[in-house]
Amino acid sequence: MTHFDLPVYVFDFRDLRNCDRTTDTKEGETIEVLVRQENDLISPPVRAQGCRSGDGQSFEISVTTKQGTQSHRWGWLALLDAIRVHRGTSGARNP
């Protein structure tokens, strides 16, 4: 496993379109998502790839850095809940 120095990138809940695009993702679909530096709430967004699993149960986010590719996986329902909490909406348009 590759060890990554900071910054580590996380899903960017600040962008409503990013959240909407993600909640609209179909099973097996890959989309562009935005991520941000984990410990810098005002960092500019960075483009990454998001892929909903074929069974629809998870969503993997991968971002390429100088050190390689960083990725992390969300459970689909957990991601929808996080979007709802961060955006103040239902977040469950595509269960």
Report a brief summary of the structure:
By secondary structure, the protein is α+β, with helices and mostly antiparallel strands.
Describe the overall structure.
- The protein has 95 residues and is α+β, with helices and mostly antiparallel strands.
- The protein has one domain (9-87).
- The protein is built from two helices and five strands, in the order E-H-E-E-E-E-H.
- It has helices at residues 16-23, 76-87, and strands at residues 9-11, 30-37, 46-52, 58-65, 68-75.
- It has a five-stranded antiparallel β-sheet with strand order 1-2-3-4-5.
- A hairpin with a 5-residue loop joins strand 3 (46-52) and strand 4.
- The radius of gyration is 13 Å and the shape is globular.
- The protein starts with 8 loop residues before the first strand and ends in an 8-residue tail after the last helix.
- Residues 90-95 have low confidence and may be disordered.
